[in-house]
Amino acid sequence: MEIQYIAISAAAVVAAFAAAAVLFTQRTRRKVDYMLDALEDKETNFRFREEQWFSRKFNKTLNRLRTIFEKEKSEIRQQEQYYGQMLDHVQTGIVVIDDDGERINYCNAKALQILGIATFSNIRQLRRISESLADAFRKVAEGVEEKASYFNESSRVTISITASPAMINEKNVKIVAFNDISSDIEENETASWTRLIRVLTHEIMNTVTPIASLSDALARYVTSESPSHGPDDQGNSPDIKAGLETIASASRGLIKFVDSYRNLTHIATPVKKAFYLRDLVESVRKLTVEQFTKAGTEFSYEEKDEDILLYADEGQISQIMVNLLKNAVQAGARHVHVRAGIDSLESIIIDVCNDGQPISKESQEEIFVPFFTTKPTGTGIGLSISRQIMRMHNGSLRLSRSDGSQTVFTLIFR
């Protein structure tokens, strides 16, 4: 009986252990399944209890795995933030376009700044800015540079666009990089004209200076009485003198003409200081009040943001404003309106508007080119010098509009 009792007890213990093992296995599976489901959903906000002796070691192992995954997830998130901040500080717009060619997976801060929009989620948004801009983003491909131009709230913008294919999360995407090259185009044009003018002035001055000097000397020689002159010489002297004086006068005029163009290549470095824009405008108004009164032209000023402060060379900016106002009067304007404000990019925008004779479409492309003028007595350097001054202030001067209603020149201080 005792042996039979021991056997029954042993069998019961074995059965209990077997049942416990089965139960432990089932619980273990459920825990592992739960953990895997959570990790698959990128969720690590769980923890298994470690108080019970029977499952303590196993739960500790699961919790350790959870900690490893949580640490890895945190490191990945920190890397994403690091690269995101780095991309937001580069001076190139970067956009990642989904494989459907329309959806935007990512764009950095510079991309939004260049495009002048608050959010960018689909290529269709670019159609509100320009159809050609949207088309350029769609068709740009690796190894091909696309260019697109459009008008933003203050001026004409030209951007250069390049693209590279990539594989992200097992999906084909297109990484598009683009830059605003408007200033570069203006700078290259200015540099080219500056080099040309330097060559022209050098060659012209070398040629004209001796002509002026010799003609003056010959004129003095003919005027003086000389016993060697015969009757024929005396009879021809007045004609020779008149011709030489004409040559001398023309030469002096040409020298003066060339000297005026030297100003294009010798603009003084700006001496910058802070001043209120309204004070500058008032000073310019006083300088041009006589011309405005004679022409019967009205002047008005509007400041959209209070106390706009410029950090620039006050004298040089005043020179630009005076030039633009005088041009407006000469164009027959009855009203000249200057408005100023600060745009979404923290740039100071000054529009000089007038209702005078519009600039022809043919001339609009040439008005900033040195030597070009639409005035009979103009030298063609006023707007060229004004644009160079703005370039030296890290800004720009552009013709934003000229039609039957209004002509608008825009100064942008970045």
Structure notes:
The protein is of the alpha+beta class and 414 residues long. The protein has helices at 2-40, 56-88, 109-115, 131-139, 182-223, 231-262, 277-295, 314-330, 361-364, 382-392; strands at residues 93-97, 104-107, 146-151, 156-168, 171-180, 273-276, 298-303, 309-312, 335-342, 348-354, 395-402, 407-413. The strands form 3 sheets. It has a 5-stranded antiparallel sheet. It has a 5-stranded mixed sheet with strand order 7-9-10-12-11, covered by helices on one side. Helix 7 (277-295) runs parallel beside helix 8 and helix 8 (314-330) packs antiparallel against helix 10 (382-392). Keywords: ATP-binding, Kinase, Membrane, Nucleotide-binding, Transferase, Transmembrane, Transmembrane helix, Two-component regulatory system. Residues 79-117 form the PAS domain. Its EC number is 2.7.13.3. GO terms for molecular function: ATP binding; protein histidine kinase activity.
Task: Report a brief summary of the structure.
This protein has 414 residues and is α+β, with helices and mostly antiparallel strands.
Please tag this protein with its features:
414 residues, alpha+beta, five-stranded mixed beta sheet, 10 helices, transmembrane helix, transferase
Indicate the radius of gyration in whole angstroms: 39 Å
The number of helical elements comes to 10
Overall SS class: alpha+beta
Which word captures the global form?
Answer: elongated
Distance between the termini: 104 Å
SSE layout and pairing:
Elements: H1 2-40, H2 56-88, E1 93-97, E2 104-107, H3 109-115, H4 131-139, E3 146-151, E4 156-168, E5 171-180, H5 182-223, H6 231-262, E6 273-276, H7 277-295, E7 298-303, E8 309-312, H8 314-330, E9 335-342, E10 348-354, H9 361-364, H10 382-392, E11 395-402, E12 407-413
Parallel strand pairs: 7-9
Antiparallel strand pairs: 1-2, 1-5, 3-4, 4-5, 6-8, 9-10, 10-12, 11-12
Helix pairs in contact: 1-2, 5-6, 7-8, 8-10
